[in-house]
Amino acid sequence: MKTINVKINRGGSYQEYAQVPVEEGMSVMDVLELLYETKDNTLAFFRHEACHQEACGKCLVKANGKVCLACGTEVCGDLVLDPWSSKVVRDLVCE
């Protein structure tokens, strides 16, 4: 299993998570869920039971500078995650 480093913009400053274990085929959403469950349960991002279908568009984030659906974007290396919009509710959740 390989590891990646993840930086998440949380209110204007970045929080870093080092050596996050990832498996081939994991999505950005999978990484966010892993971080929430194992390292930081205060992390805010959009998630729900029906996610991973790339249908609703509510899990938009900016990954490495590019706006994408977290549930449908495969992780290929280190991540820098930002809110996709300037209308931030909290962490990666936007209006």
What is the name of the CATH architecture?
Answer: Roll
Judged by helices, strands and strand pairing, the structural class is mainly beta
CATH superfamily: Beta-grasp domain
**How many runs of DSSP E, i.e. beta strands?**
7
Largest sheet: 5 strands, mixed
CATH class: Alpha Beta
**For the CA atoms, what is the radius of gyration?**
12 Å
Mean pLDDT: 93
CATH topology: Ubiquitin-like (UB roll)
Query: pLDDT below 50 for ≥5 consecutive residues: which ranges?
Result: none
Total count of domains: 1
- Write out the strand line-up for the largest beta sheet, numbering strands in chain order: 2-1-5-3-4
Q: Indicate the multimeric state.
A: single chain
What's the helix-strand series? EEHEEEEE
Shape: globular
- What is the first-to-last residue Cα distance? 36 Å
What proportion of the residues is helical, as a percent range?
Answer: 10-25%
Number of helices: 1
Could you characterize the architecture of this molecule?
With 95 residues, this protein is mainly beta. It has one domain: Roll (Ubiquitin-like (UB roll)), CATH 3.10.20.30. The strands form two sheets. The chain has a five-stranded mixed beta sheet with strand order 2-1-5-3-4, with helices on one face. The protein has a two-stranded antiparallel sheet with strand order 6-7. Strand 3 and strand 4 form a beta hairpin. The protein is globular. It starts with a strand and ends with a strand. The model has no long low-confidence stretch (mean pLDDT 93).
